[in-house]
Specification:
The complex is a heterodimer of chains A (166) and B (546). Chain A has helices spanning 7-33, 40-44, 51-59, 61-84, 88-105, 127-140, 150-156, 159-165. Chain A is mainly alpha-helical and 166 residues long. Chain A has one domain (7-165). The radius of gyration of chain A is 17 Å and the shape is globular. With 546 residues, chain B is an alpha/beta fold. In chain B, helix 3 (82-91) crosses helix 17, helix 10 (240-250) packs across helix 14 (339-356) and helix 14 (339-356) packs across helix 18. Classes of the chains: A mainly alpha (166), B alpha/beta (546). At the A-B interface, helix 1 and helix 2 of A face helix 1, helix 2 and helix 16 of B.
Chain lengths: 166, 546
């Protein structure tokens, strides 16, 4: 099932996918491999209109176990999925959800400073949101059905599952 | 045909090979990610277990717990100036106008939690039966505050008013007072404590314990003889970090501590004791005779000053002369004050004494002067005092200025590591340490930044501090908790005193600790005034000169 992307279009779509995947996978694996990692401090540093939601979340020890697990493995699986082009659309949605949550917790407002400052100055649009848009593009211009495991999955999966792929 | 078939098979295998390549095209790149992970893991996830050289418990600070259904304690308050008001708030009684201010502050800024913290403060089960101040507006304010049992603003409903006394001695004679809180000026602390002890009242006295050296012995004697529960107002005793610091010293984790550096840095008229002169203050509303002080104390003070040729520090005004400046800004004159030594050095010394059980130093040397506030004061605004403990092979340097707010921390320097304490505690390994040499060599313990941070309320002690925690601690985003609740240390310090009365125990800043505090401060003061080193004669328990 080929498509009508030109070679150069396809190349850049795959490059975009691998770059974002790389980012997610590395972030995720670093957290998975570090037994002491927790999102607590990041959440405590939340700002903006939803900060109390995230700060309360950080204060709930039981909930934080799930938050940490979801975050670590979410990042890793989204990264892996995008990387090898497996269930790519599902990965795009997952990644967008994570990025959306990060943005809600750490919005780029003027005059707001964070514990882990981005290496630049932003207003509303930060690198997370650029990546968010990138995942949107990857969702509507799927490349993995040409370059990626999805190429094989769409042939073998039953109809119902294919919508996660294509 | 045969060749056609071959061609087709070739094509099919080419297609399937291309298919496989396309399907797995990006997979080999995972190797590069894995390489990065392995490298990261090597540096970031070293085995950071340092428990073999750094033994520390996970215990959080311990505070004396109130007994349920303890008896109500009936209090008398002596002095309702700046500190008196703060102590009353710590006891749960705020001026209605103060509540108004907090309510307004919360309306303006929902993040301002001072009102909530005050309202949620534990009920200490006390009643204020008497208040005493020699300035009428203050005694009236104290009366209203003592009746503000529902913690309400000016439009609130109040309880019964405490009795107002003009002279503290009348209050000490009252039967409906069990204990007194002394927040009068320094030159009254000792006398009032002695009188209260003799009257059988328990005492919470603001620091410093005494103004003159001779009264220091009398206070100790009076408290020992009466058996009352005495607490000196060094609320730093309740700082969770200090308990952890004591454990760290006890476990020898800093190596031999040879120098402690402590400081005071303030940079405002208020910080330099130039307090507001309150409207309505005049010879009719101020009992100047009482303000002058106890005659016995004054003669002790003058005797000392005269015998050592220190008349230039006395006055310059006549003691009998009414002065609003001297009344409200009494800390600026030796006639009433103990200067930087008594007011601020004592906090630093008491913290060091709590952490290291130093006792009175063998010697004290001071220098300084009035270098900024040329307002007629006699006490210095810049002061350096060095205390030595040759028997412990260590020294403590106190360095203060009232005209620069550059903070220099409270640092304990040991051969193996140094420890800096504020509301958090941080330990930085020394690059020439023996204890940590191996871990430093292995890159596990850094020497350019703290490797251990203790943040009260976080029972989990991380072996190696992350930059994140450090950042949080520095920004004050993590609060001091006791069982998950934010507390004011002064409240805890008064709670401890009240609980010791109920449970017949000894408070943390008891008379022995207070005696050491007072003598140490006096040594520093005398060294400054006389311009020579003061020594402590342990056998005779007296200050001597070399």
């Amino acid at each position: 099932m080929e498509n009508n992307y030109s070679k150069v279009q396809l190349t850049w779509l795959v490059i975009l996918r691998v770059f974002i995947a790389w980012n997610f996978l590395f972030e995720g694996m670093v957290k998975v491999l570090n037994p002491n990692w927790t999102a607590k401090s990041y959440l405590l540093d939340s700002q903006g209109p939803f900060s109390s939601f995230f700060i309360n979340m950080a204060g709930n020890v039981e909930l934080m176990r799930y938050v940490d697990f979801f975050n670590e493995w979410g990042l890793t699986l989204v990264g892996l999925g995008l990387f090898i082009g497996c269930f790519t659309r599902l990965a795009c949605i997952g990644g967008m959800i994570l990025l959306f949550l990060y943005t809600m917790s750490h919005p780029s407002f003027i005059g707001v400073t964070y514990m882990m400052p981005f290496e630049g100055t932003y207003f509303l649009i930060d690198k997370n949101l650029v990546e968010f848009a990138g995942l949107g593009i990857l969702f509507v211009f799927p490349s993995a059905r040409v370059i990626g495991i999805d190429r094989w999955l769409i042939r073998v999966l039953p109809e119902g599952f294919r919508k996660f792929v294509i | 045909m045969a060749s056609d078939n071959n061609k087709n098979t070739d094509k099919a295998s080419k297609t399937s090979r291309r298919d496989v390549i396309k399907t797995l095209a990006t997979v080999p790149l995972l190797g590069a990610v894995a390489y990065g992970l392995i490298k990261t893991r090597k540096t970031a996830f070293l085995n950071r277990d340092i428990s073999d050289v750094f033994q520390i418990s996970n215990k959080d600070a311990v505070f004396l717990k109130p007994v349920p259904n303890g008896k109500q304690i009936r209090l008398g308050i002596i002095g309702f100036g700046i500190r008196g008001k703060q102590l009353m708030r710590a006891l749960g009684f705020a001026e209605p106008s103060y509540i108004d201010t907090l309510v307004k502050a919360k309306e303006d800024n929902p993040d301002d939690t001072r009102l909530d913290v005050f309202l949620e403060q534990d009920n200490l089960n006390v009643v204020v039966n008497g208040v005493c101040d020699i300035f009428t507006p203050y005694s009236e304010a104290a009366r209203i505050t003592g009746s503000n049992i529902n913690k309400e603003g000016t439009d609130g409903s109040f309880g019964p008013s405490p009795k107002v006394y003009r002279n503290y001695k009348e209050m000490l004679a009252a039967d409906d007072i069990d204990a007194v809180v002394i927040a009068a000026p320094d030159h009254w602390h000792g006398t009032m404590t002695i009188d209260a002890a003799r009257a059988g009242k328990h005492v919470y006295c603001e620091k410093p314990m005494t103004w003159t050296v001779p009264e220091t012995y009398l206070v100790r004697q009076a408290i020992r003889e009466s058996g009352i529960v005495f607490q000196l107002g060094h609320q730093g005793r309740q700082t969770a970090c200090y308990q952890k610091a004591e454990e760290i010293i006890r476990n020898g984790l800093l190596g031999h501590v040879n120098l402690i550096e402590v400081c005071t840095n303030r940079n405002s008229p208020n910080g330099a004791w130039v307090y507001d002169i309150i409207e309505g203050a005049n010879p009719q509303t101020i009992d100047w005779k009482q303000f002058e002080g106890d005659p016995e104390r004054i003669s002790e003070y003058l005797d000392y000053m005269k015998s050592f040729g220190l008349e230039k520090y006395v006055g310059p005004d006549e003691r009998e002369k009414f002065s609003l400046e001297r009344f409200f800004r009494w800390r600026c004159w030796w006639d009433y004050s103990t200067g930087l030594s008594g007011d601020l050095l004592t906090h630093e010394y008491d913290a060091a004494n709590q952490i290291m059980h130093l006792g009175i130093p063998d010697s004290a040397t001071s220098s300084g002067g009035i270098y900024f506030f040329k307002d007629g004061r006699t006490v210095p605004d810049v002061l350096q005092t060095t205390f030595e403990w040759p028997s412990k092979n260590m020294a403590m340097l106190y360095s203060a200025t009232l005209a620069s707010s550059r903070n220099r921390g409270k640092v304990f320097m040991g051969h193996d590591a140094s420890m800096e304490i504020s509301n958090i505690l941080q330990i930085t390994a020394d690059r020439n340490s023996d204890r940590y040499a191996e871990k430093i060599e292995q890159g596990i313990i850094p020497t350019d930044k703290p490797f251990f941070t203790y943040v009260p309320g976080q029972s989990k002690v991380d072996a190696v501090t992350s930059a994140t925690e450090l950042y949080f601690a520095q920004r004050g985003l993590l609060y001091t908790y006791v069982d998950g609740k934010t507390y004011d240390t002064t409240h805890l310090h008064m709670r401890e005193w009240l609980e010791c009365i109920r449970q017949n125990q000894t408070p943390s800043c008891n008379i022995d600790e207070a005696f050491q505090e007072a003598m140490t401060a006096h040594m520093g003061t005398r060294a400054y005034l006389e311009g020579r080193t003061m020594y402590w004669d342990r056998d005779k328990e007296e200050i001597s000169r070399g």
